[in-house]
Write a structure and sequence with these properties.
heterodimer, A: alpha/beta, Rossmann fold, 8-stranded mixed β-sheet, 3-stranded antiparallel β-sheet, 12 helices, B: alpha/beta, Pyruvate-ferredoxin Oxidoreductase, domain 3, 6-stranded mixed β-sheet, 23 strands, about 40% helix
């Protein structure tokens, strides 16, 4: 069941440039477990979209199967949504994006949906640099089927049942980097201050933007010994730096704070400011990003924040040279060559 | 010795090695006869291999217009020592075996009831050409020249064809004509020309064209307004997307910007390909994929989603011999059941069965209208025989000004005007509901598409009665669909009869010919060609009106018969099977033989090709 959130709102709720309150970006009441990290991520998505003043109906939210993939019901109720089949959200988004290049495509997936059954499609959508935001709600386990380890569970991580995972973990950020993704970040559902600007930057990025969000499963994977529990993640998260997102409309008047490292102008004219970046990470260099990820993996930390960004990314439509007019707006007059051409073809076949 | 004698009526089979350039020479031969006004039906029988294995090219020539396989070989032209033993053994008594006698024929292969003709192709080439590649390529052209003399073909038609074929590469014209002449002269000077079998110009082709079904499908997708093609390479469907791309490049580049009014994505596998089609269609574009049996297996889960969530989806299945990898380069009609009920749960999928390139084009374009009108997958079922061989076909036509039927799509204006929107609400009583494209309206018309059960407003539900009501509506929609899909075609016998045949797709031509043979023997049968699933009431009445109906199809398990029995709740006695599943197109003689056997009271067993080849027919 989906339950609607009551429509009553405080009359003084802040509105964005479009006149929408944050409530206009919410969805139905969540049916996930109380305390589920996924709900915090949904909240961050709502806040990012509201603050960016994106028209809700210009967003398409798509997902696969699993707890994570149920989440799109709980945000952006005015957007079309598509809960597809397990592990296949990337292909559905790819088709949708081919049909209409003008929408914001928000893909939501989980660690089972992405790192196991959907690994192939994940790798290939990254490689094609489809213009989308791909959020993984990563809890290291299969929640809906009661807590089996997933492929992102760390080796040695102990599940609620008490068994230590015997397999090597798949690092989605590392995989995405190898596959050619052009924006890679990791965050923690419990750190909205970091997550919201990362989502905003991912939305502004033109190309494939992955945010791997560690999102503890309170029911099946929040126990001592788990490396995806709230406690463990809080203790072991190491941020690459601080990300601040500045929308294009705002004139930058303030002085940069101490520790300013980079300003990146995004495709839509907005900019991303990076502060206090980890000394030996250059987030615009793949090699540097790979080394940083590996260094933290060995140390047993969880590297969060912006890990890599290609400032000159060209998305799939760019490289395919498709029409700037969305293909779904073309009619018979644009698409059908008419009978004379058939007559010519017939003549060549005699 | 007996010599087969005929004018404009024979079967010739070329035995070549693949990768040696024989295909274009063989095509030239068939096209030349076609230009002489003769109906031809060339069929490539090729290996799943790029170079070095035996490959055959069988051409049926029939002034009477029979385009299916007849069965039996009247003339074999063998330039492949690997397959020579098989090739000579297949020749009809009194037929002709033409071979390269640069090396003498193995005496063990000699048949006294076959006319053996040697043309020293290798020797002629070695004397004429220094370059080994030229020797190989021109050998093929030389035997076409020799055939021109042996069969009394119009030599000028051949030379004109060469000129057409090498338009833009003019320096190749003269060497090719020279090679034709080399073969022609040798045959004229050394063999008693023409043979008992020969051709003469006729007027039996009219305005017909020679085209393969896959190209016609690709064109159908262009004309039908497809903008997104997602696919994974698989024989024998690959050339569908190749053709789509070829014509899209020609007519879909925006002249102002140079940008493409189409997108072709080569997917990582078939699951992804169909997922992209569903995503694009959901978002209001016309999209398609093309595949074959193994791809359909992989696409099944998504086909269930598209059925249940009611998303327009166009899939072209160019069938090949299964199961599993099967015989990838041989033909069958063996995906009928796996597509008709594709995916888990209670599903029924719409199938279209074209039988000519023109129908591939027509149904290919129509599939997009049907998919959007009916909001469900439309699976167009062709096969390797139709898809990859040049088939004689009525010309392609398009009615200028024809509009696309985009189906029931609620607009921003309607939503703004307060029209109530429920994605799965049957407001018109035809069980087809309105959909909205994403981004239609700022605050109205958004909904959640899902493969889980939901109510009429697309809200998730696990209430049994709501689920059941939706499933029953889908059954009512199935009835609506019957009014939209192409109906069957009936050919009535010359005399009233209570026996009939029923066939679909590429079994049509051979069936038609077999019925003519049977009629000459006094066996009259009505015929129905089924063109779509679901079957409509005409199919049911036709079966009911006959005591016995033979269902002719190219698979082992009588899949169409099973479908008819299941859908019409028929007992097994009413429908008898005529089957062929050796990977070659079903032949007229095979069909006749199986029907005769049954009518004589025998049990029908699918016959192996070699046992049927000499079964006689006329």
């Amino acid at each position: 069941m989906s339950y609607q959130i009551p429509k009553f709102r405080h009359p003084d709720l802040p509105v964005n440039e479009l006149g929408y309150t944050r409530a206009d970006y919410e969805g139905s009441i969540s049916t996930l477990c109380a305390g589920c990290g996924h709900d915090s991520i949904s909240g961050a998505i709502v806040r990012a979209c509201h603050e960016l003043s994106i028209e809700p109906h210009k967003i398409a939210k798509l997902s696969g199967i699993g707890c994570s993939s149920k989440a799109p019901t709980y945000f952006l109720g005015k957007s079309h949504g598509f809960n597809s089949v397990h592990g296949r959200m990337p292909s559905v988004v790819t088709g949708a994006a081919m049909a209409n290049r003008d929408l914001l495509y928000l893909g939501v997936s989980g660690d089972g949906d992405t790192a196991s059954i959907g690994m192939g499609q994940f790798a290939h959508v990254a490689r094609r640099n489809l213009n989308m935001v791909y959020i993984v709600m990563n809890n290291g386990c299969y929640g809906l089927t009661k807590g089996q380890d997933s492929a992102t569970a760390d080796e040695g991580s102990v599940s609620k049942k008490g068994d230590a995972n015997i397999y090597s973990a798949i690092d989605l950020c590392g995989t995405a980097l190898q596959m050619g993704a052009t924006f890679i970040a990791r965050s923690f559902s419990g750190d909205k201050a970091q997550l919201v600007p990362l989502i905003k930057a991912a939305i502004s990025h033109r190309g494939f933007a992955l945010i791997d969000v560690v999102s503890p499963c309170v029911t099946f994977n929040n126990n001592p010994g788990s490396t995806k529990s709230y406690e463990f993640v809080r203790d072991h998260a190491e941020a690459t730096g601080t990300v601040d997102f500045v929308p294009m409309q705002k004139e930058i008047t303030t002085e940069y704070e101490a520790g300013f490292s980079h300003e990146v102008t995004m495709h839509d004219g907005s900019s991303v400011h990076l502060y206090k970046m980890e000394e030996d990470l250059n987030p615009f260099d793949r090699t540097s990003a790979l080394i940083a990820m590996e260094k933290h993996r060995v140390a047993g930390d969880i590297l969060t924040g912006l890990i890599y960004m290609d400032k000159d990314s060209r998305d799939l439509h760019d490289v395919m040279e498709t029409s700037r007019r969305p293909l779904n707006t073309l009619g018979a007059e644009d698409l059908c060559p008419g009978n004379q051409m058939l007559k010519n073809i017939n003549a060549s076949l005699r | 010795m007996k010599k087969l004698e005929s004018v404009n009526d024979f079967v010739i089979k070329f035995a070549n090695v693949n990768g040696t350039g024989s295909a274009s020479a063989n095509n030239m031969f068939a096209k030349a006869l076609f230009r002489m006004g003769l109906p031809v039906s060339p069929k490539n029988i090729f290996p799943s291999n790029i170079q070095g294995l035996p490959t055959w090219y069988e051409v049926r020539v029939s002034e009477a217009g029979y385009l299916g396989r007849r069965g039996g070989i009247d003339i074999a032209l063998s330039v492949n020592p690997q397959s020579m033993a098989q090739d000579i053994s297949e020749v009809e008594p009194g037929g002709y075996f033409i071979y390269d006698n640069t090396k003498p024929l193995d005496l063990r292969l000699v048949r006294n009831d076959v006319n053996i003709i040697g043309i020293p192709l290798t020797r002629i080439c070695n004397e004429e050409y220094k370059d080994p590649r030229q020797r190989q390529l021109f050998k093929n052209v030389i035997y076409v020249g020799a055939l021109a003399a042996l069969l009394d073909m119009d030599f000028k038609v051949l030379t004109d064809l060469v000129a057409d074929q090498f338009k833009g590469k003019e320096k190749l014209i003269l060497p090719n004509i020279h090679a034709l002449e080399l073969g022609h002269q040798y045959a004229r000077n050394n063999v008693d020309c023409p043979l008992g079998i020969r051709v003469q110009a006729a007027d039996a082709v009219g305005d017909k064209i020679l085209l393969d079904g896959n190209t016609a499908l690709g064109l159908g997708a262009v004309y039908g307004g497809a903008t997104v093609a997602a696919w994974y390479p698989i024989t024998p469907s690959t050339s569908v997307v190749d053709a789509f791309e070829k014509y899209a490049r020609r007519v879909r580049i925006d002249p102002g910007t140079g940008r493409k009014n189409y997108a072709i994505v080569q997917a990582e596998d078939e699951l992804s390909a169909i997922g992209m089609v569903i995503g694009a269609s959901w978002n209001g574009a016309r999209a398609f994929t093309a595949t074959s049996g193994p791809g359909v297996s992989l696409m099944s889960e998504f086909l269930g989603l598209a059925y249940f969530a009611e998303i327009p989806t166009v899939l072209f299945d160019v069938q090949r011999a299964g199961p599993s990898t099967g015989m990838p380069t041989r033909t069958q009609q063996s995906d009928i059941l796996s597509t008709a009920y594709a995916s888990h749960g209670d599903t029924k999928q719409v199938l279209l069965f074209p039988s000519t390139p023109k129908e591939c084009f027509d149904f290919g374009a129509q599939a997009f209208d049907l998919a959007e009108r009916l909001q469900t997958p439309i699976i167009l079922m062709t096969d390797l025989d139709l898809g990859m061989n040049d088939n004689m076909s009525p010309p392609l036509e398009w009615e200028d000004g024809r509009e696309y039927d985009r189906g029931k799509v609620m607009t921003a204006e309607q939503l703004e005007a307060g029209v109530e929107f429920g994605r799965y609400t049957d407001v018109d009583g035809d069980a087809i509901c309105y959909r909205t494209y994403p981004a239609t309206h700022p605050s109205k018309g958004a909904f959640f598409t899902r493969g889980t059960s939901r109510d009429e407003k697309a809200v998730y539900t696990e209430k049994g009665e709501e689920y059941e009501e939706n499933m029953l509506r889908l059954m009512r929609k199935w009835d609506t669909i019957k009014e939209y899909v192409p109906g069957p075609e009936v050919v009535s016998a010359a005399q009233k009869t209570d026996i009939a045949v029923l066939y679909f797709g590429t079994s049509e031509e051979s069936s038609r010919e077999a019925l003519d043979y049977l009629a000459k023997e006094g066996v009259h049968m009505d015929a129905m060609r089924v063109r779509a699933f679901p079957f409509n009431h005409e199919v049911k009445s036709f079966i009911e009106e006959h005591e016995q109906v033979f269902v002719i199809e190219q698979n082992r398990d009588a899949q169409l018969r099973t479908l008819l029995m299941a859908e019409f709740e028929l007992g097994p006695d009413k429908l008898k099977s005529v089957l062929c599943f050796d990977g070659t197109p079903i032949s007229a003689r095979n069909i006749k033989k199986q029907i005769n056997l049954h009518l004589d009271g025998g049990e029908i067993q699918p016959l192996h090709r070699s046992r049927v080849a000499n079964a006689g027919g006329e």
